[in-house]
């Protein structure tokens, strides 16, 4: 066990439990979080600078170094610490970091932990002889579980990322003839399935687990992560599609008004104007923005007055939304999702099952509109039909016939991960699962 890790565990052990704050005590919370992500007996040797920094920061807190600077008072947070101390310790980057570090600490060393695994498989109802498409293979967590559910189950494993495709190829050695790796985007699926002689209306179940994999987030060279420094790339396809621009290309070439739209629409970033201006100013001063750290620092410096929290009220990096916006734009993610949903309907047989796992509202809204039948000319419609045009009034029969969905949703409310899953896999925290059956 490494010395740093031992020190960290000791500090947490001696962290005083505040009896008045049952269930809200920071030390207890941290110990639980750590226990969930790290199994102390599995620790080997390597520990990065990041863990060392975190250990030191915990040490300062435990030794009450900030006692004079940040007096514990009625205005302290519910944990008895100041907001600043809390955000230092409980930052989502730190929790994500601990989770990333599982590679060092755990034996199973999964490259990506599948989200809502059991629920997703339950809805897909795998049975011997059934055929599935895993539209987002990643590291194959969901596909493996499907294959294990019965002999003769077959999975077409699609992913646009060559790294994921390699994983699928390896898995096909383990399940010969039962997993068919396909390299491409949703929009390339018709051609790929044609080559496999797969026809419309023939598939039993289709799964989408949208977003990025941990292999993409955790590899600094892919440029997806706000907390790992690397080139600002963000292409899920790596170099597979020669004319695809990188995030750095977008920052270097887009006009200010285009940047504002990208940040506002794809990042839902309220401070889009400020950030776009800072990017354009940096360009004018010949400061190239080519690394994730340069972008993260630039955004943090122009939004320095705001301490951000994520949707679960946890401290988040101020550049998180900017990163999300660029990633969605570079990979044309929303159009892909929209078309992917159309294809799911095309290839599923009647009574075939669809399961989707989304990670933010932009993804979920497109899925929801498809399932509700709110699609006009192949596009998920952003506005309820009856309000879609001020000078057009649809009569209720027409609205009903247009909204007559070819899907029936199986779960009344979206399914979200339980606390235990979130503690083990913080990346699951914003996941929403929908399951539907094709009714026509
Ligand atoms: C969240 S991961 C899936 C993880 C997987 N379910 C597992 O358990 O390992 C999402 C994957 O979808 C892939 N992906 C995203 N958009 C895609 C698209 N339009 N076409 C094909 N693959 C896509 C990404 O490359 C990534 O590997």
Spell out the key features of this protein.
SAM-dependent_MTases_sf; alpha/beta; Rossmann fold; transferase; 11% strand; seven-stranded mixed beta sheet; 440 residues; single chain; DNA polymerase, domain 1; RsmH; globular; binds S-adenosylmethionine
Strand content: 5-15%
Bound molecules: S-adenosylmethionine
Helix content: 40-55%
Structural class of the secondary elements?
Answer: alpha/beta
Explained architecture:
- This protein is of the alpha/beta class and 440 residues long.
- The protein contains 20 helices and nine strands.
- The strands form two sheets. The chain has a seven-stranded mixed beta sheet with strand order 3-2-1-4-5-9-8. A two-stranded antiparallel sheet has the order 6-7.
- Helix 8 (141-148) links the parallel strand 1 and strand 2.
- Helix 1 (3-14) packs parallel to helix 3.
- S-adenosylmethionine binds next to helix 8 and strand 2.
Topology, element by element:
Elements: H1 3-14, H2 26-37, H3 49-62, H4 83-90, H5 92-100, H6 102-105, H7 117-124, E1 131-134, H8 141-148, E2 154-159, H9 162-174, E3 179-183, H10 189-195, E4 203-209, H11 214-218, H12 247-253, H13 256-267, H14 272-284, H15 292-302, H16 320-330, H17 333-347, E5 348-358, H18 361-371, E6 375-376, E7 379-380, H19 396-402, E8 407-409, H20 419-424, E9 432-438
Parallel strand pairs: 1-2, 1-4, 2-3, 4-5
Antiparallel strand pairs: 5-9, 6-7, 8-9
Bound molecules: S-adenosylmethionine (SAM).
Keywords: Methyltransferase, S-adenosyl-L-methionine, Transferase
Family: Belongs to the methyltransferase superfamily. RsmH family.
Pfam families: Methyltransf_5, UQCC2_CBP6
